[in-house]
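User: Please fill in residues for this 447-position structure.
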């Protein structure tokens, strides 16, 4: 039988100014000879913390992918006091026999203001929020179906104190000449934030809203994993059913209405501050540190792209990272044809129209579908970073930023720096077929 020696580890993450760091003490470890389950007792002191478990053998980590099967007081916010967690190596690290005394456990407490890399919210149970230190430590892996249907998975972006050049240089392939939407300007971040690994799916919307199904692409065999679309800013933040709701007191960044999708999700998660990302948060995450002239996974943008032309030039690299007009099964699957004609177009399978989230290669930070699939609504008003003095005031009040391109378009619109408006009406209303291209992903700004 393995014998485990505890290593005490104090908070790895700094608490906010004036707050105490959580600390761990009194760690004891035992193992059940029959089941191999490892029980760890510990005491948390000084402040609430997010507790995680690490395991090493001969001084080397066995890898987070072998420690995901943990129950009890771990991978969540824990209050000060005596606690117990149980690691189940028979599930996550089977068929390993170790010599006595060669395995150590490490209990770590993270400050709640500086949490681990991944966050998962179970939509089937109120307040079931878990944290994981890496993609490998996420139970079942980040591509597990449950994170596309019954749980929301978020990835932390380390942005506090950092800045980046938003927009694109004039010589980036696809740059739309004389278009102020891509004008370069430096943006600095005061906070880190979480952003969704995937777009919000139809099943997730259905669970949060109690059975509401607004989307167009509702094929019975694949609707659940497809991104929710045909939704408006009003439905996300103001009222989950009212496509035309307007309440100035609820405008971003004020807290959303309690019966909106975001309001209901905040309640379901125990009041985590879910919201739409800002355009800057979205673009920084999309670029994933790769800068200009690149897609989010680091591959170069094709030299032949030309912005503001009648033809969308195909880019083979883009076809690998997102659903678009060139990799739809029926080709050029456009709103003006497939979506506005026969009702049967609603029942298309997942080879055309929107793709189930995660169908294509992720970007360098492990985020899926940042390019293509559906336009993603952001919280900003359309002119938040640029002076659109020629846009009517009434329109600017309703218009919202959309980024990322969609399944009906080619690559130049899907570049990280490009943005368009959820226009004067569709920012809040459902008056256009273009709504069938609009979805979103979630964000949480850390304090």
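Assistant: Residues filled in for all 447 positions:
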């Amino acid at each position: 039988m393995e014998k485990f020696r505890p290593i005490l580890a104090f908070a790895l993450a700094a608490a906010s100014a004036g707050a105490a760091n959580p600390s761990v003490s009194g760690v004891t470890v035992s193992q059940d000879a029959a089941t191999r389950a490892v029980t760890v007792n510990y005491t948390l002191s000084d402040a609430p913390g997010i507790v995680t478990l690490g395991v090493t053998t001969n001084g080397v980590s066995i890898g987070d992918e072998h420690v995901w099967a943990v129950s009890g007081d771990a991978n969540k916010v824990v209050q000060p006091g005596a606690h117990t967690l149980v690691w189940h190596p028979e599930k996550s690290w089977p068929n390993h026999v170790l010599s006595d005394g060669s395995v150590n456990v490490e209990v770590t407490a993270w400050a709640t203001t500086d949490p681990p890399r991944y966050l998962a919210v179970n939509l089937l149970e109120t307040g079931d929020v878990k944290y994981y230190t890496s993609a490998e430590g996420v139970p079942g892996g980040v591509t597990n179906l449950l994170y596309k249907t019954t749980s929301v998975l978020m990835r932390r972006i380390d942005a506090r104190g950092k800045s980046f050049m938003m927009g694109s240089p004039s010589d980036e392939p696809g740059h739309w000449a004389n278009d102020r939407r891509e004008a370069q300007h430096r943006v600095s971040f005061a906070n880190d934030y979480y952003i969704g690994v995937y777009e919000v799916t139809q099943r997730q919307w259905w669970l949060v809203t109690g059975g509401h199904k607004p989307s167009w692409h509702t094929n019975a065999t694949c609707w659940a994993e497809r991104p929710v679309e045909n939704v408006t800013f009003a439905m996300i933040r103001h009222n989950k059913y009212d496509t035309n709701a307007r309440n100035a007191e609820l405008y971003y960044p004020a807290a959303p209405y309690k019966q909106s999708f975001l309001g209901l999700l905040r309640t379901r998660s125990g009041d985590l501050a879910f919201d739409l990302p800002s355009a800057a948060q979205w673009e920084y995450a999309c670029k994933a540190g790769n800068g200009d002239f690149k897609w989010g996974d680091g591959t170069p943008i094709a030299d032949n792209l030309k912005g503001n032309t009648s033809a969308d030039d195909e880019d083979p690299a883009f076809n690998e990272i997102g659903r678009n007009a060139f990799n739809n099964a029926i080709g050029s699957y456009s709103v003006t044809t497939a979506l506005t004609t026969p009702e049967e177009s609603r029942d298309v399978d997942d080879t055309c129209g929107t793709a189930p989230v995660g169908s294509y290669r992720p970007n360098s930070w492990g985020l899926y579908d940042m390019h293509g699939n559906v336009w993603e609504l952001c919280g900003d008003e359309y002119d938040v970073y640029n002076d659109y003095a020629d846009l009517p005031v009434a329109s600017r009040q309703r218009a919202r930023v959309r980024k990322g391109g969609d399944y009906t378009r080619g690559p130049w619109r899907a570049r990280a720096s490009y943005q368009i408006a959820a226009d004067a009406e569709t920012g809040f209303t459902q008056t256009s077929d273009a709504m069938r291209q609009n979805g979103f992903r979630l964000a949480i700004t850390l304090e």
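For context: The chain has two domains: 4-112, 121-445.
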